[in-house]
Write a structure and sequence with these properties.
Two copies of one chain form a homodimer. The first copy, chain A, has 338 residues and is α/β, with parallel strands linked by helices. Helices cover 45% and strands 16% of the residues of chain A. In chain A, the strands form two sheets. In chain A, strands 2-1-3-4-5-11 form a six-stranded parallel sheet, covered by helices on one side. At the A-B interface, helix 4, helix 5, helix 6, strand 2 and helix 7 of A face helix 4, helix 5, helix 6, strand 2 and helix 7 of B. The structure holds a DNA duplex (16 and 16 nucleotides). Chains A, B: It comes from Georgenia muralis. Chains A, B: This is LacI family transcriptional regulator.
Chain lengths: 338, 338
DNA sequence: TTGTAAGCGTTATCAG
DNA sequence: CTGATAACGCTTACAA
């Protein structure tokens, strides 16, 4: 650890200097319970004098805790920084943990190469627990986590629902239904959707909810394009949709970031929003209110989900439950785009 | 660590099951040097059978290494996610470390409340070393780090140059000079600047370089507004600048994110860029090419700096140097805004 | 309130 | 190549 030649001071040196036993020194260092004022003062002075810091490895070898929890984001760093979903979640987790003594440690990296390393990190006991957040990709991080005993809560339901993992998520299918109902109510007769990836729960479920309502209304559900969550891919998908179905008059896009790109394409083609095509997004994290026109969207309650995930993880760490997954209801915010 | 009642398997159980000593088991687990094929096979089988994972705390208690390095970003999460500087640096650090076995751990949090926790985390030996990146704020994280013996490299020179810390940085003053020279060469006679915070090295130095050239040309250097690095503050500062000095014809803004906001204000006032006011930014990380008009800007070689910082840290960890700070030269990229 | 002593799970040294 | 054995630095019953 140290560059300097001299080894880091240990508790025995503190104890010797303070004239107490190692046990007493230990209690005092932790602001302990049963220490006399004199002993505490002596220890504190000794600590200051020699610059003592407890060795975390030694400590957690016996306590079996590290006082840190990991936030795992199995995405590439570019995704992490472009999609506001992650910023919102991270902010929520941070504030929810601010009252505790837990240090937050962020593990970022695409699934694949670094995934094994991340899981090893967790299984080795580097963190007391983990919050895993992603746009629900079915990845090996989640699988590996499932067969480890590391306390964990997922933000975003895993693809494989049978995995013994606790999660929080928004009602994606319900959101898709809300979007479709709204578009139909506004008079759309030829609805289309730019859906998320077909191999992610969020993509699949948002699409399924939308399709359910559209089909129930006796309308076609064939105007569908799957993409990843990026703006570029969404723009391309929107282009294909318009080429194949020129009569589209209502568009549900699986995220606001993607919806903004879709509206850009519409504008580029001279198609008026909402006059000729009505658009509904998903997320409502600030961006939706800033687009032109402002975006009607399905609320993704990421702050509340993050808070809840933290509560559940803390409960797991204390052994007081926190193992029941929860799905948050959603709502539609109507703005100028529809 | 574990939720399950059964304690995690240890090396002694592996050894017993494999019919070897604890020492041999340990060597085999690490793909060790002097182990017979049979012993290795037996150990590997035992590991698989009981799902053994080495206990990191025990391991690093003796090796004094954790095989992880921390990237410390003492900024609020909103800053982290809005300014492309951090995304770029993180990407650079990640790729530079991808060939090693080191796990990257991200510590994010505003200086102040969580700063002590971050430094404690490092000093406790949770990570083998740290890369600290920020827009150079003078903060207690850096100070605390300076008096610890944790190997560290700063990306961005610390405010207090006397601190015994290693850093990499761009030649901020040189960048400011480049910007000013360019503006003057294009005919600006009333240059102004939206500068970064006065209490950060990057803010101070970019301003100083600009002022040096402007003064040398015999022009006034009084059109200066300090702001933090946010777009909102930059917009406000630009407004004040225009109010106070309506004859401004050249504007150097301390970051591209801020320059974009400044151009927005100019456009809102019907002031043509570059025809009436020429604008130069700082960073050139993708954003500059996407603004309208595209932004002339000073290159901030964040990818190269990140790579270098990683190399230096690795050298420090191996005790082979890496303690000499380095300043990167910069360059101007001319685009439509000037 | 304090001290004694027994671990926590690994790695490393050093004979065999 | 293998196996005792001694650390590593700290916490925590348990006794005093």
């Amino acid at each position: 650890m140290t560059r300097t030649g001299s080894p880091a001071p240990t508790l025995v040196e503190v104890a010797r200097l303070a004239g107490v036993s190692r046990a007493t020194a230990s209690r005092a260092v932790r602001g302990g319970e049963r220490v006399s004022p004199e002993a505490r003062a002596a220890v504190e002075a000794a600590v200051r004098e020699i610059g003592y810091r407890p060795n975390q490895a030694a400590r957690s070898l016996v306590t079996r805790r590290t006082d840190s929890i990991a936030v795992v984001i199995p995405e590439s760093d570019s995704t992490l920084f472009t999609d506001p979903f992650f910023a919102t979640v991270l902010h929520g987790v941070t504030t929810a943990l601010s009252s505790t003594d837990l240090q937050i440690v962020l593990l970022v990296g695409q699934p694949g190469e670094r995934a094994a390393r991340m899981v090893n990190y967790l299984r080795a006991g580097h963190a007391d627990g983990a919050i895993v957040v992603s746009h629900h990709r079915m990845d090996n991080v989640v699988e590996a986590l499932a067969e480890s005993a590391v306390p964990a809560v997922l933000i975003g339901r895993p693809w494989d629902a049978s995995l013994p993992l606790t999660w929080v998520d928004v009602d994606n299918a319900g959101g898709g239904r809300l979007a479709a109902e709204h578009l139909l109510a506004r008079g759309a007769r030829r609805p289309a959707t730019v859906a998320g990836p077909a191999d992610m729960a969020a993509g699949r479920d948002r699409l399924a909810g939308w399709a359910e309502v559209v089909a129930a209304a006796g309308l076609a559900t064939d105007a569908v394009e799957h993409t990843d969550w990026t703006a570029d891919a969404a723009a391309a998908a929107t282009g294909r949709l318009l080429d194949d179905h020129p009569d589209v008059d209502g568009l549900f896009v699986a995220s606001d970031l993607m919806a903004e790109a879709a509206m850009e394409v519409l504008r580029g083609r001279g198609i008026a929003v909402p006059d000729r095509v009505r658009v509904v997004g998903f997320d409502d994290m600030g961006l939706a209110a800033r687009t032109r026109p402002p975006l009607t969207t399905v609320v993704n309650p990421a702050p509340a989900m993050s808070r809840r995930a933290v509560e559940m993880l803390l409960a797991q760490l204390e052994g007081t439950g926190g193992t029941e997954s929860v799905q948050f209801p959603t709502a539609l915010v109507v703005r100028g785009s529809s």
